[in-house]
Amino acid sequence: MSDKQVAARETRRQIRPLTTICEDKGTITLRLEMPGVPKDGTELEIEGSELRIRGRRDAPPADKAYLLRERAEGDFTQVYTIDETVDRGKIDASMEAGILTVTLHLREAEKPRRIQIEAR
After folding, report:
1. Which pLDDT score, from 0 to 100, does residue 107 have?
2. Residue 103 DSSP symbol
3. How far apart are CA 33 and CA 43, in angstroms?
């Protein structure tokens, strides 16, 4: 294998944001690490049982001689399957310091509730 083949493979890495998903008090929160991806270059879309997150990280300026570039550039799509317990009308998203936070709210019927025991 030649050096050019190795270099070509290294530059075509797939972008896959690191993701943390947690559930707490009637919500499911996704946190995606997306440094270098601008808010206005990010799209969220829900269709059926799929939540799609699309983004684009632009290439760094070509006017420098890079010695190491570990961060890949280009388009990416993350797809998450959500079930019927998620209220599709209540999805919030925010981005701060390269972290996209998506909050999925559970339907009222699916939220845990405390049942009071009555004395008789």
Report:
1. 87
2. E
3. 15
- The number of angstroms, rounded, from the C-alpha of 33 to the middle of its chain's C-alpha atoms is 7
- The secondary structure of 53-88 as a DSSP string is EEEEEPPPPTTS--S---S--EEEEEEEE--TTEEE
Distance (Å, whole) CA 52 – CA 77: 7
Record the tokens describing residue 54, joined without a space.
């699309």
Domain containing residue 17: 3-61+68-110
Number of domains in the chain: 1
Element (H or E) spanning 94, and its range? Answer: strand 86-96
From the first residue on, what is the mean pLDDT of each consecutive set of 10 residues in the chain (120 residues)?
40 74 92 90 91 88 82 88 90 94 86 78
Distance CA 95, CA 92 (A): 11
Residue with tokens 């209220």, as numbered in its chain: 87
The amino acid occupying position 76 is F
